[in-house]
Specification:
Blueprint (H helix, E strand, L loop, with lengths): L6 H12 L14 H5 L5 E8 L2 E8 L27 E5 L3 E3 L2 E3 L2 E8 L4 E7 L11 H4 L2 E8 L1 E18 L2 E19 L3
Length: about 190
């Protein structure tokens, strides 16, 4: 039986995990739904169905607000949490390959080291955490890293946006757009 002193905390966490009411349902957060509504960088999610099962990414959506983003807010050659607030996470319900990294079913965090021509993307096993710092304790849970090329955009994207673009019945690209920059993170459903 759950003690009365921890029951409210358990129920609050369950509510936050299950229903944020802002498109981020099922995303882990440290805030209550009321606190989420007041964030300058809202929590959001994107999903894609691969092989009849759902892949979900959860991330915070910072905005440029007239500030330079690439090599400004997001410094080239330095670790970035790939969003705002909590660590950006991806949930895969089947054995998968994220970029060149093979993972079992589960939830993983993603962080990057951006550059002008390519970004290094790291898949990490430590998920339910604030996005920074990415210190030695976090890096000890790294599963693998791969590089993706940078694509230029012709129109400015004010707020970090992640979407999935299907590339096959068992694959999709996680498309990350911000400012005039796009990267694509391939996700493939593996058999077995």
């Amino acid at each position: 039986m759950i003690g009365r002193s921890i029951l409210p905390a358990v129920l609050t966490l369950a509510l936050v995990l299950v229903s944020c009411g802002d498109g981020s349902d099922g995303c882990w957060t440290t805030d209550t739904p009321g606190q989420l509504a007041n964030r300058p960088s809202p929590l959001d999610s994107a999903i894609v169905i691969l092989g009849e099962e759902q892949v979900r990414v959860c991330y915070g959506r910072p905005s440029a607000r007239e500030r330079p983003v690439m090599d400004g807010l997001v410094r080239f050659g330095e670790i970035w949490r790939l969003g705002a607030n909590e660590a950006t996470s991806i949930e895969v319900p089947f054995r998968s390959r994220i970029g060149d990294v093979t993972v079992d079913p589960g939830r993983y965090s993603l962080y990057v080291v951006p550059g002008a021509e390519s970004w290094d993307v790291t898949v990490n096993g430590m998920v339910e955490r604030w996005g920074i710092p990415v210190d030695a304790a976090v890096r000890a849970a790294d599963i693998g890293t791969f590089s993706v090329p940078v694509e230029g955009l012709s129109q400015h994207v004010e707020t970090l946006t992640m979407t999935f673009q299907e590339t096959g019945s068992d694959s999709a690209d996680l498309v990350v757009d911000w400012e005039l920059t796009r990267i694509r993170i391939p996700v493939h459903r593996l058999e077995g």
